[in-house]
Amino acid sequence: MRGIAGAPRHGIRPDRSRDPWAVREAAGVVAAPGADAAAVRAGVVPPASASRAAAAHAARARRARPARRRVLDRPRRHGGDRPAACRARRGGRATRPRLRSLLRAGSGSLGHLATWPENRLWVSADGSTGIAYRLVGEVVVTVSDPFGATGDPEAAFGEFLAFCDARAWTPVFYSVHEGWRAVLAARGWRSLPVAEETTLDPAAFTLSGRAMQDVRTAVNRARRTDVVTVDASWTALAGPLRRQIVAISEHWAADKRLPEMGFTLGGLDEIDDPDVQVVVAVDAQERVVAVTSWLPVWESGALVGRTLDMMRRAPDAPNGAMEFTIAESIEAHRSAGLRRTSLSATPLARPAEQAGVAVLGAVLALVGRLLEPVYGFRSLLRFKSKFGDAAEALHLVYRDPMQLPAIGAAIARCYLPQLTWGSSLRLLRG
What we know:
Elements (H helix, E strand, L loop, with lengths): L23 H4 L9 H6 L7 H15 L22 H5 L5 H9 L14 E4 L5 E8 L2 E5 L3 E2 L4 H13 L4 E7 L1 H8 L4 E11 L12 H12 L3 E5 L6 H16 L22 E6 L5 E12 L2 E12 L7 H15 L4 E8 L10 H18 L1 H8 L6 E8 L5 H12 L5 H9 L1
Parallel strand pairs: 3-5, 10-11
Antiparallel strand pairs: 1-2, 2-3, 2-4, 5-12, 6-11, 6-12, 7-8, 8-9, 9-10
């Protein structure tokens, strides 16, 4: 879990707290007795003397821990003026040049999620196609569509499925677009909709018309009060702006029962990326009133679009601050000649009765209800519809209905990684 350089780390996860080796992120990675000497010298694991400090740390953590802990951990905290570069420690495979090269060849609207921590990368034998995934138990949950210069999607899928089958893993493709769903459907796979993505053409975007009245009012109000937008990468933003954004995000997280997701919705951790555009609305007193982040969409090496990710507003922000920030971002995309603006996928917003699969639909509905007070997926879907109604369904694609209980538990843990397997199975039983 990423944090600010020099800030204290989180405590031990509930399901690993009795394992002194599991405190490696809190007290430094420790070498197990008999660890390979070459690995120690290479720095893969530090000397075994670190184990005593780790064990002591674990003992102190157990004594300090309350008798009963919630299954869901507390929100992530940040301090200082920017996220620290801790990603390599937990998700180093996500920052490799090979991944960035594949994304630039063709990322799709959600491909940049592959760079986020906890995601693994599979690459086809010919190096043309990448698939990002998370391994939860024996279930492989892919993160949206394959990416790269995929000339033969059927061959890429066949190779990836052979990769999973050789390891006795159960693959499930999550939040894939219609084109990729159709390729798997031709193999006899089944699917159900799990999210909706709102997209628009920046060149055709306009504030005129009755449907845009709320957005137009918000833009006019902001301009009358001298609110402007600033866009840059995270590191290029001025220090005072970064510190205010961190404070806003901290305030947002403080009242939440759940941590930032980091699965299909990013947060402060994910904006420290040179390819991510941060758009900040600032008032006449140079106070940040709202902030958004935009992921890149690549095609044949060219930036062709942006996808909305993080949205945060100051507690005292005027009404319409977020509408203004998004509208100004779309205008900037048009000025940059981008062809596509995606307001991203809104997951878990469909009612369970539309899912069509009783077991999995019930699990996704229950996870959605748990997350709704924090993320407001259904209200978020309504909010995005203010900017256009071109919504495309994203699908979950699976091979065998007998695998649905395991798939449901795995997806629940992707959204709520602090859940134990037992808690995930209890979700299945309702």
